[in-house]
Amino acid sequence: MSADASSIVGRLAPSPTGAQHLGNARTYLVAWLAARAAGGRVLLRIEDIDSPRVKPWAADQAVEDLRWLGLDWDEGPDIGGPCAPYVQSERIEHYAAALSRLIELGLAYPCTCTRSDIESAASAPHEAAMIDGPVYPGSCAGWRCGDPLPPESTYCWRFRTVDEEVEIEDQICGSVKLNPRRQLGDFPLTRKNGSAAYQLAVVVDDEAMGITQVVRGDDLVPSLFRQRPIIDALGYRRPQYFHVPLVLGADGRRLAKRHGDTRLSQYRQAGIAPEAIIGWAAHSIGLTDSPRPVAADRLIAAFDPNSLRRHPTIVDPSWPLVVN
Fold first, then answer.
1. Domain residue spans of the chain
2. CA dist., res. 96 & res. 144, Å (int)
3. What does DSSP say about strands 156-159 and 108-111: parallel, antiparallel, or unpaired?
4. What number of CA atoms fall less than 13 Å from residue 192's CA on the CB side?
5. How many CB atoms lie within 10 A of CB 2?
6. Fewer CB within 10 Å: C terminus or N terminus of the chain?
7. Structure pTM?
8. Dihedral over Cα of 149, 232, 309, 278: its sign
9. Alpha-carbon gap, residue 223 to 214, rounded angstroms
10. Superfamily covering domain 92-198
């Protein structure tokens, strides 16, 4: 559901699983500009429920990186606000309540399958791989609310997807269509240890925090078709979605350590001005006609989501060379 300018709320949501890099910076810039250009508010949320991969230093560094880039926020873990707490690991009870409701609605069931079970049983792995990994074959989907539960810590909760084509409008990608059951499969709402999975946590948090704009990388387009049915089932508001093309290495793969050091902290320590990063990011996504340095707040007045490029950017690790 779209919102008028006075009620627009965007968010910056770093995951502290490692250092923030050029691709993250570009997505954060678009998220910040989309909200600020519409006169809206920005929240900062730390998405730290991916506990095995979370680095103890990464959240503080992400906050430092964002401040260095000149991107501010109106609420967050450092300044507080009416939607506190703004750290996912401190919001566990909210996810538990939403999960209970989905179970009551018959939309969630316990699943004891392992990753290897799913990979070996998937009916069309070649098709699934083009979307987002093997499609869950529904091995445990016969469970109904009231049936006995498997032993503790042996199962996750999965969401029942629909077997029909669904169409969702994205502000960058345009109209996106797929069949959730056939192309994605039923997906986890929790891990086997009971902690909330990404798809459930972000939906609950976005609703609780009044988020009306979700801006993230276009590798998460499949999440549209996982999160929308949760939103609708729980009676939540539908946000607008902006899926930003990724920044890739010269090999066409998502930017990572193998492509060289593109960490924002590395540029900061090397004395690179934040305006240089913002200028590159704005130009690479189609907001400016050259990569000249510019402060983020100088881009607000002219921000136009319709001008955003719809293809990925390839960078050379030697910075600031843009290959494509």
1. 5-90+245-314, 92-198
2. 19
3. antiparallel
4. 11
5. 12
6. N
7. 0.91
8. negative
9. 11
10. Glutamyl-tRNA Synthetase; Domain 3 (3.90.800.10)
Read off the tokens for 258.
């193998």
Specify whether the CB–CB gap between 68 and 58 falls below 8 A: no
| CA dist., res. 12 & res. 79, Å (int) | 14
Burial 233-250 (b: 16+ CB within 10 A, else e): bbebeebbbbbbbbbbbe
Question: Distance between CA 34 and CA 198 in Å, rounded?
Answer: 23
Cβ contact 195:1 at 8 Å: no
Which CATH code is given to the segment(s) 5-90+245-314?
A: 3.40.50.620
